């Protein structure tokens, strides 16, 4: 099956987004800059926000 695509326009996968979150990109603007996700049509913004909520207990990753 592979890694689910979250941003079809820029071909950014869930795994790429989660890796960026682990590196400290903890909100939509930071993920946009780090991965290019959500810089095309913008339809994936809700999916990325949900991914952030899933990836972090309070919706943001705590600093290391």
Structural class: mainly alpha
Classify the helix fraction into a percent range: 40-55%
- Poorly predicted runs are none
Mind summarizing the main beta sheet? 2 strands, antiparallel
The global form is: globular
Order of H and E elements: EEHHH
Strand content: 5-15%
> What is the CA–CA distance across the termini?
32 Å
Q: What would the average pLDDT be, to the nearest integer?
A: 89
> What's the count of strands?
2
Q: Oligomeric status of the shown chains?
A: single chain
* Biggest sheet strand line-up: 1-2
What Rg is obtained from the alpha carbons, in whole angstroms? 11 Å
**Count of discrete alpha- or pi-helical segments spanning 4 or more residues:** 3
Structure, explained:
This protein has 64 residues and is mainly alpha-helical. Helix content is 44%, strand content 8%. The chain has a two-stranded antiparallel sheet with strand order 1-2. The radius of gyration is 11 Å and the shape is globular. The protein starts with a strand and ends in a 9-residue tail after the last helix.
